[in-house]
Structures are given as C-alpha cells and as structure tokens.
Amino acid ABC transporter substrate-binding protein, PAAT family
Amino acid sequence: MTKHAALFLVVSILLSLSLPASAEGAGCTKKLTIAFFDWQPYHYRDENGTPTGLDIELMRATFGAAGCEFELKVMPWKRTLLAIKFGTIDGSLGASRLSEREQYAWFSRPYRRETMVMFMRRDELEKSKVMSVADVVSGKHRIGVLLGSWYGDEFAALYKADPKLRKHMLQTPEYEVLFTWLVKDRVDVVFNDLFNGLHILKGMNALDQVAVHPVTLNDDYIHFIFSKLTVPRTTLEAIDEAIAAFQGTEEYTAILHKYVPPEQLTFMPMQ
C-alpha cells in the first residue's frame, strides 16, 4: 500500500466514525409530537396537569423501548385527525384503524382493545324494546355521540343509508357533556367507550341512574396513529417491534390492572 493510499484509508475511517448514524434501523430520527385529549382512564391530565392514563403509560413504555422521544400536546380528537392528515403533528393514540384514515396515516400494531357500548337511563332500559343498533335508529331515539368517533360498521352503514338520522343526533367534543345530556333527558342513548363511560358516571355519582345496554356497538383493536407526511416507516416498524415485545409481560399486565379491574379485562384481551 502506498503512503497516499494509506493516508486516504485513515481519513476515510475517521470521517465514517464522525458521521451521524444512518436513519435506517434507528427507532426515531426526531422527537415526535403526539396529540391527546382528556379521556379517562386512557389519557388525561391529573390534578397537577401531568399527562397520565392507561394509554399514556403504555406509550411511554413502548416508545421508550423503541428509542423514540416524544412531547404531548392537548388537542380535540377531530382536530387531531386533521392535523395528522396535514402533517402539523406527528401522531396520536387510541385510534381505530379505518380505510379513510389509512390514506394519510400509518397505524401501529394494536396495543389494546376497545369496547363501544350504548348507555341508557336505567329506568328506560328496563322497559326498553331496543335489541339492536338498528332499533335505536328506527325508533328515532335521540343519540349523543362524540365528534369524530367511530362506533362500528353497523352504525356507519345505518348512518350512510339514512341522511335523516343526523337530525336525531347531538354531537359534542366533550365526553362529560354526553352523560350530562343523558341524565338530564336531552338524549335517550349515548354511544361511548365502556370504561370511559363508567368512569365519568362514577365521577357524576350517576351509576344508579344510567346502565349499559347489553348490545355492543363495536369491539376492536386500538392503535397508535402517525402522519405519513412526517413519520417514516422505520419509526413505525421500531414501535411495532416494541409493542410486540411488551405485550404479555408482567409490566404490561400491571399497567392494565392499574386502570381496569381484573375481572373486566375480558373486555380488553391482548395477551
């Protein structure tokens, strides 16, 4: 090897050591901005304003294992979806995987399940003839729903088939408002997540006034959602690997037990 060739080799090695690592194989190439809103027990701010909840803890564990830093930003759900679509934030949590959302967003592998149910005033449920979602629609019941939420294929099909249905729907971005409407007889039925609804009713001291209808609206997997404009697929793959490794561990089960009574975990099976 000539003197010049040896010098070139040494310089090349030094340069390669000084360059930043390739993004390929890395977990995250930047700090992610993740939007959330107050939705107990999944993600909310405690009395000190600190973000916490079941999904927040699962995200901290899996993102940390994937080598991804993140910052949290409070934002209503419908606005969150628009921000993900246009790339003004990187992602969010607690998302249902829908074909229209897949046009602009990546979805992680599922990290838990979600059960959407119907809540009715207890005295009316006992005498109700409602046996299905279709009965709610055909009976012209007043329905309270959250803006931008997904309540399953059956309700989506009924909503699409009957444009007049929206006249019987009251929509709000606030979950607590839904149950205030129900207790005060402004709506006849509220569509909502099972555990979020029970948590709100407990806080309102209204568990004796409202009951859960036995018909399930939707039972499906829940995912982290990311903007295709700002989050590379390599980041998604790293987070997916972390989720797969984390599920079934004692730490994962302990987090579930912290927020969901063990006897009710049949509604949220992931192991």
Observations:
- DSSP finds eleven helices and eleven strands in the chain.
